[in-house]
Amino acid sequence: MIRLALRVRREDAEIALAELLELAPSGVEEREDGDVIEYAVYGAPGELPALPDLRAAAGGALVEITTQEVPDDWHERWKAFHRPVEVRREDRALRVRPPWEPADGATGVEDLVIDPGQAFGTGAHHTTRLCLELLLELDPGDACVDLGCGSGVLAIAAARLGWAPVLGLDHEAESVEATRANAAANAAVVEVRAFDLLHDGPAPTAPTVLANLLRPLLLHVARTGFSGGEAPRALVASGLLAHEADEVAAAFAEHHGLYEADRRHGGEWAALLLVR
Q1: Which of 13, 110, 246, 257 has the fewest Cβ atoms within 10 Å of its own Cβ atom?
Q2: pLDDT digits (tens, 9 = 90+) for 209-259
């Protein structure tokens, strides 16, 4: 097994990540090291992205590319990095765990089982956790759309908390399949279908919209709007570095009358609750 790591400048990391996920749609491991962000993928020789493609994806942001052999028991060691994540608000809580971790059986906790091996997004990353925190601040009900559902964490959480119907959208076939599988494993009613925010027209909308996306995609949604022309009543937006949050909040306020009601930070990341 080979670990292939791409190290890029922090200020250009989001663009490099968007390009890298085109080459590695099943997701990447992310590590922060000062002014550098490292994205890594694992695989057997011949399964990994080609070095010229990685260099092209990183462009001028590239610091270095490294490769490293990992032990044969890497799959078991990898499991140790995926621990349950709990998000709590007063008497409501969400616990997201991988399949090999047992449920804790606590009352008042929605227990979600997400397979981190299928698609990008397991609940542990700051951006996903921040979205879950903001989701708990909202009153469940009516329809909900998850733009860029990844492994389905947010869509499944919304369905389990009481939103209905719930629609998950992603342009990656692997993410669509992973969300469907994870929804079934959690007895969550979630419709999932492929949708490309850049090429398939305005984003589908609902009273509640979840958008854990990168800054360029969030700004694209702000500019192109929502299907039917009506903005959601509440939009949870993340995938943002902290210094990008003001720009995204201003864009949705200008184009859709959505104003910032809450902002959360985790590490270098931020999430916004925008309402009208």
Answers
A1: 257
A2: 999 998 889 999 999 999 988 899 999 999 888 999 999 999 999 999 999
For domain 2-77, the CATH architecture is: 2-Layer Sandwich (3.30)
User: ∠ CA 22-224-269 to the nearest 5 degrees?
Assistant: 55
CA distance linking residue 83 with residue 123, whole number of Å: 10
How many angstroms separate the CA atoms of 140 and 246, rounded?
A: 27
Helix (H, G, I), strand (E, B) or coil at 126: helix
pLDDT digits (tens, 9 = 90+) for 121-176: 556 678 889 999 999 999 998 999 999 998 899 999 999 999 999 999 998 888 89
Architecture of domain 123-275: 3-Layer(aba) Sandwich (3.40)
**How far apart (Å, rounded) are the C-alpha atoms in residues 183 and 171?**
18
Q: Do domains 2-77 and 123-275 have the same CATH topology?
A: no
Half-sphere exposure of 52 (CA within 13 A, CB side): 0
The pTM of this model reads: 0.77
- d(CA 230, CA 66) in angstroms, rounded, equals 47
Q: Which of 24, 271, 270, 231 is nearest to 145 (CA)?
A: 231
3: enclosing H helix or E strand = strand 2-9
Pick from 41-50, 168-177, 201-210 the range whose average pLDDT is largest.
201-210
Cβ-based neighbours of 30, under 8 Å, separated by 6 or more: 17, 37, 38, 39, 40, 125
Tell me the C-alpha to C-alpha distance, in Å, between residue 185 and each of 188, 219, 233, 244, 249: 8, 33, 30, 35, 35
C-alpha span between 94 and 85 (Å, rounded): 8
